[in-house]
Amino acid sequence: MRNSVFFYKVPNYQQELVDARIEEFFTQSKAAKSLSSSTKVVLKPNLLAKHAPDKAVTTHPSVVCAVIRALKKRGVEQITVADSPGGLYTPAIMKSIGQVSGLAEVCRQEGALFYTDCEFAETQADGKLMHRFNLLKPVLEADFIIDLPKMKTHVMTNVTAGVKNLFGTIPGLQKAELHMRFPEKEYFGEMLCDLCLTVHPQMTILDAVAAMEGDGPAGGTVRHVGLLLASENVWNLDLAVCHLVGVQASKVPYLQAAIKRGVCAEEFSTALCEGDKDACHKIEGYRLPSGYVEMDFSNRFPFFLRWASPAIVKFATPRPKVDSKKCIGCGKCAEICPKQTIRISDHKAKIIPANCIHCFCCHEMCPVKAIDVVRPLGALFNL
Known about the structure:
It is a single chain. This protein has about 375 residues and is α/β, with parallel strands linked by helices. It has 2 domains: about 5-280, 3-Layer(aba) Sandwich (Rossmann fold); about 310-375, Alpha-Beta Plaits (2-Layer Sandwich), CATH 3.30.70. Helix content is about 30%, strand content about 20%. It has 13 helices and 16 strands. The chain has helices at about 15-30, 60-75, 90-100, 105-110, 135-140, 160-165, 175-180, 185-200, 235-245, 255-260, 310-315, 330-335, 360-365; strands spanning about 5-10, 40-45, 80, 115, 120-125, 130-135, 145-150, 150-155, 160, 205-215, 220-230, 275, 320, 340-345, 350, 370-375. The strands form 4 sheets. Strands 1, 2, 3, 4, 7, 8, 9, 10, 11 and 12 form a 10-stranded mixed sheet that branches. A two-stranded antiparallel ribbon has the order 5-6. A two-stranded antiparallel ribbon has the order 13-16. Helix 1 crosses helix 2, helix 2 (about 60-75) runs parallel beside helix 4 (about 105-110) and helix 8 packs across helix 10. The protein is globular.
């Protein structure tokens, strides 16, 4: 059970359907047997920014509701829904996101707490790169953590699921500081690996009823998948997501780090699939991020040009670009930028390319999808 990944077919977000499948997982979960009235449980959804549920950016409220109901059925009385979205982390912002996402209303109806106090504290981490993290206070005080990610593509990490979702346990703009500290994908992946091992969720339940494809985690398009995935092993669940969408685990920085450490396998084993086993197959035509390519394409150049390939590779790396026709000059991108390389001039955002570290935080946070991901040489080399 610990390493199994449960696939459940859920055609839509009708509450009764979602409740039934979540209850099925809890019934079979060994971890759930430890729950009692005294257990402090934290639910960690994906609340990237202020988006309505139908945009497939945030964890759907029916999934959160079903998990709360399963916990209450087991006598749990202390249930907190907590996350730190991108950008500033203040009580006012959290109340607004809670309202738009529908999670605040779910908590009100079901008697759970939607956390808006925005307090955090430091904890020790026995990591490869990180020896301490600042984490949300409810996460540090929890006896039992349930990770509730959304299945999405991601322009930096290629996919975002259970492990990447835990980045939201770090408060506010401190996430941008970690992007600045670890601009290279390899080291950013190592940091996420350290974080996951520190937070250590007891369950992960993934919302893939309506997922996101393309240039996610906010700028992509909605893709109906009709699945819920659940596991007590977050690494295996993320491997299962890679299996579904056709992404090599070695191209997901945090999974690559975990593979090197021996924390997870190199690919998902279908022998671990439980539940609706016939759903455990690659989704045809799932659109991946613009940056999902092998950037080492020097062997495509004529011999006399190969000396220049490192410079060409650097130039061809995917990067954010502002669409001035769409930009409303709100400044969200400048607020989140780790390198502070974005300026608002004449009510339009402008990116200084030389300082960009290609973290794509600006692309994630733009409320009007005015920041695209471009590949300057993509068409030339058929990338």
